[in-house]
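Sequence and structure are kept together here, with a separate record for every protein. An example record follows, reproduced without changes.
>
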Amino acid sequence: MTQPPTPTADTVRRLVRPLLKESGTQGPDVRPVTAGRAYTWWVGSRHVLRLAPDREAAVLRRRELRLREVVRPHVPVAVPISVAHGDWAPGLAYTLDIVVPGGTADQHDVSAVGEADLAGLLTGLRVVPARQAEALGVPRTAPRSLEALRRMAVHAAERLAAADEFDPARLHQLTPPGAAQLAAQPGTAVLTHHGLTGEHVVVSADGRVRGVLDWTAASLGDPAEDIAGLAVAVGSPAAVRAATLAGYGARPCLRGLWLARCDTVIRLTDHLEGRAGGSPALLRTQLGRAWEPILLERVSGLEDDGTEP
């Protein structure tokens, strides 16, 4: 298989100049969004160019364009708008999107009104027709086993303890019976973003959630995955309050909380032991967010919480 070219500033300028009808030889100011990410570029101050690095990613980019149009009417936050799309190299897609103004959830705290924005997001995703999403090629994803994840996290926590990074006793709050009680319930699959990281949640300086980026990982599956993503992105209390406002009951909220807690313990361990990349500072921040205490920390009496969607 031919290795695709690595995009450069000249590559990006040649691509976007005719799209933006730029005159002159220099073209717009372009720069990578972050160091080391050669496939996402700022184009001036109003656009962002996302380039698929391989054919699999190209399929997801093209599907994302159609999915955005399906999601947009149902959610109260901005979903990116593409002003142009096509191929930047044979079989490799690009999208040129209008920038959603604001910072990220890693830069700004979400306010109470911002939590209501997140509740609207979760509510909107629940009402997107599953058949419509499936017709676009959005896959169905089986719920993860919380008990299997708990066991992995227990072992990871012991290794973090040896590095003086984490108290493994904190995981004792989630017992095997508790994990079983928080298993995903049949018939609860909804459209999920499945990638609600801090960098994908656009937050303004006043704490409002202005948009959600990068819908390439979307799937039909466990709504607790998006609650877990929000717990890592904005903190467990805000995530649980938003999910509760969206009508989710204790079980999916607590399931999402513990998915996030186990995931963050495992991810930091993998990084410290050289099996995964990422910023250690960010991974520690995400661990702290997921482990923020919430009022709902109990795993009993969930059989009839009255609000299970």
Notes: The longest strand covers residues 82-89. The CA atoms of residues 233 and 259 lie 13 Å apart. Residues 299-307 have pLDDT under 50 and may be disordered. The first helix runs from residue 9 to 19.
